[in-house]
Amino acid sequence: MLLDSARRPAIPLAGRLTPGTLERAALPVEFELDAEVRRRIAACRDYTARTMGDGREVYGATTGFGPLVAFPGRADHAGQCDNAINHLLAGQGQDLPPAVVRAALTVRLWSLCQGRSGVSPQVVDALRAALRTSFAPAVPTYGSVGASGDLIPLAHAARALRGHGHAYLGGERLPAAEALRRAGLTPLELDGRDALALVNGTSVTAAAAALATARLHRSYRTALTLSACLADLLGAAPAFLAPQLLRAFGHPDAVRAAADLRELMAGTVPAPGRPLQEPYSIRCTPQLLGAAAASLGHAGRVIGDDLAGISDNPLFFAEDDLVAHGGNFFGQPVAFAADLLSMTATQLGNLAERQLDLLVDPHRNGGLPPMLAAEPGRQHGVQGVQLAATATVAAMRREAVPASVQSLPTNGHNQDVVPFGTQAALTALAQAERLRWLHGSLAVALRQAAFLSVRGSGRGPSAPRCAAVLERLAAVIAPVDPDRALDEEVRRAADVLDGLGDESADEFEEQQP
After folding, report:
1. Sequence-separated (6 or more) residues with CB below 8 Å from residue 36
2. 487-511 vs 421-456: helix axis angle to the nearest 10?
3. Which residues of 422-454 are buried (b: 16+ CB within 10 A; e: fewer)?
4. What pLDDT digit, counting tens, does each position of 455-471 carry?
5. pTM
6. What is the pLDDT of residues 379-419, one digit of tens each?
7. Cα–Cα distance for residue pair 138/157, rounded to 1 Å
8. Residue 110's closest CA among 157, 40, 196?
9. Active site residue ranges
């Protein structure tokens, strides 16, 4: 059995689920189920069984699915579970990253532990056992419209947990039965309402959006840091960060962004000959970054509420003798929030790309050579890095088209309006990764600019905190002299920047209600 979680403390299945916990679930993790949570799950399961035994209609347990609700379901519960999963095994496209799938299983586990879904205790135990190993179902990208839950991707996940289809173990794609065997897991058996409880929630949507939120909060801190390093290295006067100026702007997040930039640039020495007003990619950074922080904060609160909620149908309230049929599986809140994340990431990407362009332009970069080449013509510095950055920004702009308003009727017009939250969330996660590449590209250019600046004028960075950041980058990225491949170094710089952003991401989680 591939166990790794024993060395880390168990996470209780109570309280608020956070993006940080979902990131931890990429590796084997132990989730602790206390007696009260187990009692709650069992009590709801008993009430569900009594309700079905009394002949009351319960969607998906005694009826067909979707527009076929008017027809009776299969008489035996196990057969009904088979039917629920099998008709949904129609997903297409490449597999989702195992980390995303494991995060989705974690969201599903958290929801089922609320004791409103009527699921069997063994389903919860099976999810906990799978997450304790490196097991991850193979789940195709396309299939969910984000309404009635993430039916198709979660059905593929359920199939793998039952030992069918494929799964990943330690990053290796295997037949699911083999992956379960190697992990020391037994195939999951489903009964009663178990199958629908597994597939009828927006767990993939919530998981992908939460992972995107965590990454983008790190990238926000990175954008602050790189903007400060750029301004300091070029010798920009910090007048654009005047507290009085930003207070007059009237946006609290912009005030905070300017304060952070002032702190990062403390000790900077303006260079003679800089223009009275810097380009917008320097001068307007507190306004742009403040708007980004506000958007990330709003999206994070919406996604946090979703992680704390229950996106199942129906829900069971034994204390009120109520089986509530409704639409909690309609993922519109996260769809809007995820589209906002994508747009925010794209504008942060626009900023990083323009800052990179400023650095390589000899007419605006304070006398540094074109393309930051050590010997222009004989060498080409970061010319290729800028080309790749331009291509990346173009991709981000295309992907920033909102998914949350692309509603198409489907499912026999049972789902006559849909939010496409899953696509919005997966796009936001992809945008976060593209933004990392752009920040890595800018960091490589800044490191090269610092090298050339010291070699030429001897100026270099003057703000101590900016100098420290550039020293950390210099420790893993050598000067580009002569030309060499920089693809891996862009990614290495992005990893360094992630480390700088971890502290702010932790602070964000602590601020969540």
Report:
1. 14
2. 120
3. bbbbbbbbbbbebbbbbbbbbbbbbbbbbbbbe
4. 887 788 999 999 999 99
5. 0.95
6. 999 999 999 999 999 999 999 999 999 988 888 877 888 98
7. 7
8. 40
9. 59
